[in-house]
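ARCHIVE CARD
SHELF: 3
SLOT: left
DATA:
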Amino acid sequence: MSASKILDPVLLRSFLAVADTGSFTRAADSVHLTQSTVSQQIRRLEIQFGCDLLDRNGRYVATTPEGERLLAYARRIMQLMDEAVEQLTQSVELGEIQLGVPEDFASHALTPILAAFAENYPGIRLEITSGLSHELWRLFQQGKLDMALVKQRKGSAPGIASWPEPLCWVDSLERPAAARNPVPLVAFPIGGLYRNEMTHALDATGQRWRIGFVSTSLASVSAAVKDGLGISLLPRRIAAQHRILGEADGFAALPDLELSLHLQDGASTHTKTLATELVAACDVIMAT
C-alpha cells in the first residue's frame, strides 16, 4: 500500500471536528489545536484525495459531496480506534483472575455468579479451573491460582470463609450394594478427599471393600450409586435421591468436612470483589 493511501487518524479527527461544529475555530478548540493547524490538516487531506472536502463559502463550513462520503468512513475508523484503545487499556489495568473450584460447584452452583461477574467486568480475564480439591490446593500453594474454593478436613488450612460439609454413606434405593462382600465402592480417583475418608473408615472397622467405579465427576459418582454400582460417601446436601446408611447398617457417621475459600495475599481489588460474591453464594448453597 502506498503512503498516499494511508489515512492519518489525526487528520481524520480534525476533519470530523470541523464537520461536526461547522467552524474551524470551534473545531480547533475541541481538538486542542490552533486554527491554522486544523486548516493545514484539512488541506493535507484534500491534497491526498485530490478534491475539496469542505465548502468554506457559506456562513458555516459544510462538507462537499466527497467530504460527506469520507465523513461516514472517518466516523467508523475513529470509533474502531477508540474501541481498540479502550479494550486494551481495560485488559492492562484490570488484569486477570485465576480461580479454582470443585467440580460440583463448577457445574451449576456457581456458574451464574461467575458469568455475571465476567459480564460486569469485561476487562477482567477470568479463568476457572475445575478439579479435585487436593489438585486445586496444590495449584493454589504454587501460586498458580489467585483464589481457590476447596473441600478439606475442618481447620486444616484457615481460609477467608468456611462452611461445614456434612457427609453421609449412600446406597441405591433400588439396587442396594451395602450387604455385598466385599462391598463395592463408588469413588473419586486416588487422592480424592471423600475416597480417603471412606476407605480409612472401612479399614478401621475391618470391613472388606473393593473399588467398583471411579470418576472425577460428582454427578457421575452419584449416578453410579443410584444405579447400584456400589456405595459411596457424599455430601448430605445432595443425598436426597439415595438411601442413607447409618450405624444400624454397619456404617458409622463420620466427622464433617468443610468447604473453604482461600485468597492469596496481595489479591487485587477485583479478586476481592469476586471473593465477596462467592462467599455470599456459598452462604446460600451450603445452607440448603
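SLOT: right
DATA:
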Amino acid sequence: MGKAKVNWNVQTAEEHKLETIVENYKRFLTNQGYRYQTISLYSGRVGKFIEYSRPNEPCTKKADDYRDLLLDQGASKSHVNNTVFALKKYFEMKNIDWSTKILTRNDSLPYYFDENDVLNIFSVCSNIKHLAMLKTLFYGCLRSGELSKLEDNDLDLDKRTIRLRETKGGRDDIALLNDECVETLRIYLNIRPKIEVEGKYPLFFTDNFNLWDRGDIHRMFMGYKKKAGIKKPGAVHVFSRHSPATIMVAKGCDIRIIKELLRHKDIRTTLRYAHVANETKRKMYEEYLVL
C-alpha cells in the first residue's frame, strides 16, 4: 500500500502569507505562458527571496542586497541570473520597475565524466529502476526535468526513441536510445506496475507513488556518484549532457550530429560542450595532417 503524502503541520500566519504570494506568482507566470519547469524554478527562487526579506516587505533594495549575497556566497552565474529573472517577474507582477546587471556567461570548458566514470556509476547501481533512469538520462542526453515528465506512451522500445514534451524552449522533440538502454528499460518495465499518478501514467515514479522532481533525481544521482568514488565536480546535468557530448566528440562524431542529439537550437551552444581531450587532438592531428 502506498504511503499517504500528507503534511499534518499547522501553518503559521507567515507561512500562509508566503504560500499565498508564491501561488499568486505561479498563476502570474502561467498566464504569461511560462513552462512548468520555469515556473517551478522561479517560484522557488522568489520564495527564498521573500524569506530573506522577512520581517520586512520585499523591495528592490532588498533584491539588490540578495543578489550581492548570492555572489558573496559563490553562487554560479547561471544561478544568480535565474534568480534575477525570477525577481524581475515578481516585481513586474507588483507593477514595480527593477533593473540590475545580468552576469555574462564565461566560455570556460564545462566539467564532464569520462567513459570509466560513467561505467563505474552504472556498475554500483543495483536498483533496476535507478539504473533505468540513469541510462535513460545518459544515452538519451536528457535534462532531469525531461526525465521526470516522461510517460509510458512516450517510450517506443521498438524504434528505440523517447518523445519529449515541452523541452527547453517549449517544443516537443525526440531522443534516441541505444540497445543497452532499451534492454535495461525492458527489464525494468517487466517488474514495474503501471500506476496512475496525478492523472498521468509516469514512466518513472517514486517508491511512495509520487512523481519524481529534479531535486529527487539530483539526490539519487549524487548518491551513486559518491558510491562510485568519483570526486570530480558535477551533478546530473554534467552526467547527462556534458559527458555524452564530450565522449562523442572524442570518438570523432560530427559536431552537427551532436547538436541534433542534444537538441540545441544554436551550434554555438554545442561547441561550448564539445571540448576535445588533448590525446584526441593529437590523434586527429597525426591522422589528418599528413603530406
